[in-house]
Amino acid sequence: MTTTLRTLVVRAAHLALCTLILAGTAGAQESGGSRLKDVVSLQGVAATPLVGYGLVVGLNKTGDRRQTVFSAQTLANMLERFGVAVSPGGIKIENVAAVLVTSELGPYNQTGARLDVTASSIGDARSLQGGTLLPTPMRGPDGSIVALAQGPLSIGGFGAGTGGNSVSVNHLTVGRVPRGAVVQVARQTALPASYELRLALQEPDFVSAGRVARAINAELGTEVAKVADAGAIVVRVPDQYRQSVPDLIARIEPLNVNVDTAARVVINERTGTVVVGSDVRVGSAAVAHGNLSVRIRTRFDVSQPAPMSAGSTTVVPKTDVDVDEGNAKLVALEPGTTLADVVKALNVLGATPRDIIAIMQALKAAGALRAEIVVL
Predict the structure, then answer these.
(1) Pair 109, 183: CB distance under 8 Å
(2) What's the DSSP call for residue 231?
(3) Do the beta carbons of residue 101 and residue 117 sit within 8 Å?
(4) Which residue, among 359, 363, 336, has the nearest Cα to 348 in the 3D structure?
(5) DSSP letters of 104-123?
(6) Are 96 and 128 in contact (CB under 8 A)?
(7) Start-end of H helices in the chain
(8) pLDDT digits (tens, 9 = 90+) for 59-82
(9) Which run of H or of E encompasses 61?
(10) Which CA distances in Å does 176 have to 122, 145, 146, 173, 329?
């Protein structure tokens, strides 16, 4: 192989490698969005809520007490069906708890499908730890039995105690039975009309709706999708998919779409949680935040009368009051400040989550926060 030919081969290999790298980079950028199936849902097809009433047994004396009459009545009725006649008043139900069982039936779940269920105590049980849900019919909105639930409960915590002392971790009166319900009836869920699909955005937004429509049109190679409003995209079914609409849905569901999100600051004052979205911007403002603490201490001194006097011994309170205003710092925020700058400035202030809540609300009131505040 001559030197010139060898040089051409090396250059061609180098060009092919660069092409592969660029293609991989472009693929990574395209895959950075969300799948279409994760941001939209098909209108006209909805899940069905299910509910049932049942008993949890096998508790370690943490179940309902005698004040919960319906637990004893339910247990007596169940025992009677097994040929055991007993009066509700003669049953101790401390190992039994009455629960409401809830679940959700998907639009395409058929007979034999398994669903996760949640059992919630409706009596005065202290804990469902270690309990087993007895077979419980679950009914739909029309009152018909749709599924049957049973199985051991998963609490996700524990509780223990004796002699008036106790300790508990997490919530003990609600448990889940993973895949604990079996669907008993077949559903007849019809797809929308074969000439049109209507997709609903989970977060309505005109920008996101436009991107979804463009992604579908690019995939199908024709202008079949259009934006109806901020929350809906109408897709006209092409002729080749009129007899196989599920194939069309399966083709567009994996599409990558970069959805647009509103700038939000989410605040949960009960837990002191603050979540700041990436698109949050702050206008020109100066922030100073200080902590005002007032400390009051009371001591009790004994006043002793002089010997041989007619006075009496008394307790005299002595109160000290201290006021500490803290060392507040002033931080200037320039127009167009990003999330990273806001975080850095708040760290300079030494702000705690409680302080950040107050600062965000004050910035919003001053008109400097370019975001919506959502209080949970």
Answers:
(1) yes
(2) T
(3) yes
(4) 359
(5) EE-TT--TT-EEEEEEEE-S
(6) no
(7) 3-30, 36-39, 69-81, 206-220, 245-252, 339-349, 353-365
(8) 888 888 876 777 778 888 888 887
(9) none
(10) 15, 20, 19, 10, 49
Which residue is listed with tokens 């006075």? Answer: 311
d(C-alpha 60, C-alpha 2), whole Å? 87
Cβ(226)–Cβ(233) below 8 Å: yes
- In angstroms, rounded to a whole number, what is the distance separating the alpha carbons of residues 257 and 212? 6
**Amino acid (one-letter) located at 129:** Q
Q: Which residues of the chain have pLDDT under 50?
A: 1, 3-31, 292-294, 323
Q: What is the CATH number of domain 191-257?
A: 3.30.70
Phi-psi region of 170 (alpha: psi -120 to 50; beta: other; left: phi over 0): left
179 burial level (CB within 10 Å; 0-12, 13-18, 19+): exposed
pLDDT at 276: 77
Q: What is the CA radius of gyration of the chain?
A: 33
CA gap 87, 99 in Å, rounded = 21
Q: What percent of the chain has pLDDT over 90?
A: 17
Residue 17: both structure tokens together: 């490698």
pLDDT of residue 137: 94
Strands of 225-229's sheet in order across = 40-42, 196-201, 232-236, 225-229
**Closest listed residue to residue 330, CA positions, set 345, 318, 312:** 345
Which ranges in the chain are annotated with CATH 3.30.70? 191-257
| Alpha-carbon gap, residue 265 to 176, rounded angstroms | 32
- The phi and psi torsions of 75 (rounded to 5 degrees) equal -65, -40
Q: What pLDDT score was predicted for residue 20? A: 33
